[in-house]
Design brief:
Keywords: Cell membrane, Cobalamin biosynthesis, Magnesium, Membrane, Transferase, Transmembrane, Transmembrane helix. By secondary structure, the chain is mainly alpha-helical. The chain has helices at about 1-15, 30-35, 40-60, 65-80, 85-95, 100-110, 115-135, 140-150, 155-160, 170, 175-195, 195-220, 225-245.
């Protein structure tokens, strides 16, 4: 049982980050990555904590917060492999660049970035960079936001069918209820430990609302979800949670 949990932890970090997990056992099949959903918030918290720690260290060394923030974002992007940002750009290009679902999905598979994708990336980085510059305690806030963002990825995955038969989201399948409830518990506990109670609750609500809005949009645009939609959900949820935390500072 314990070995299985470690394998799921490794699967979560291997799926959502570029952090080294070679020493941990890997799940035996693709379904193991869905069962690992309970650990997605832990992977998000690790990436967020890295960015928050970089922000805190750089400002302590004398950099202005606005100049430290891009370096902190760079650390987070390196740790995650910019996986979610890639999904955000592809989703924005697909949803904004065509009228019918088949063409939208075709655009989302194109590795080239268009105007909608570039604008979405710029806005998301500006939002997170601005939040980093304003947070009094960036490490716990970024760790909590990262955890809530990866929890929010589960909303479109659970609420919508795959929009195509192949791809990351279709391969994952629908996580078991126990894994989804575990993710909710892990993210809520992390937020409660890292943030004031009221801020944790509002940030959780904002993250889930952002992902729910994107899930509704994906349902109307392409009739389901894809790996790109999941990544976009994580970025939108993180931006929403950080906006709430800055507003409450």
């Amino acid at each position: 049982m314990l070995r299985a949990r470690f394998a799921e932890l490794a699967a979560a970090f291997g799926l959502l980050t570029r952090l080294p997990v070679g020493a941990l056992p890997q799940p035996p099949d693709a379904a193991g990555y869905a069962r690992a959903a309970w650990a997605w918030p832990l992977a998000g918290a690790a990436v967020g904590a890295l960015g928050g720690a970089a922000q805190a260290l750089l400002t302590a060394a004398g950099l202005p917060p606005a100049l430290a923030a891009p370096w902190a974002l760079a650390a987070m992007l390196l740790a995650s492999g910019a996986l979610h940002e890639d999904g955000l750009a592809d989703t924005a290009d697909g949803f904004g660049g065509a009228r019918n679902p088949a063409r939208k999905l075709e655009i989302m598979r194109d590795s080239r970035i268009g105007s909608f994708g570039a604008l979405a990336l710029v806005l998301s980085l500006a939002l997170r960079g601005g939040a980093l510059a304003e947070l009094a305690a960036p490490l716990p806030a970024m760790a909590a936001a990262g955890a809530l963002a990866r929890l929010a990825m589960l909303l479109p995955l659970l609420a919508l069918p795959p929009a195509r038969r192949d791809g990351l989201a279709a391969g994952l399948g629908r996580p078991p209820l126990a894994a989804a409830l575990g993710a909710l518990a892990v993210a809520a506990i992390l937020a409660a430990l890292l943030l004031p109670a009221g801020a944790a609750l509002l940030a959780l609500g904002a993250a889930l609302a952002g992902a729910a809005a994107l899930a509704a949009l994906a349902g109307s645009q392409i009739g389901g979800q894809t790996g790109d939609v999941l990544g976009a959900s994580a970025v939108l949820a993180e931006c929403a949670a950080l906006s709430v935390l800055v507003a409450l500072r």
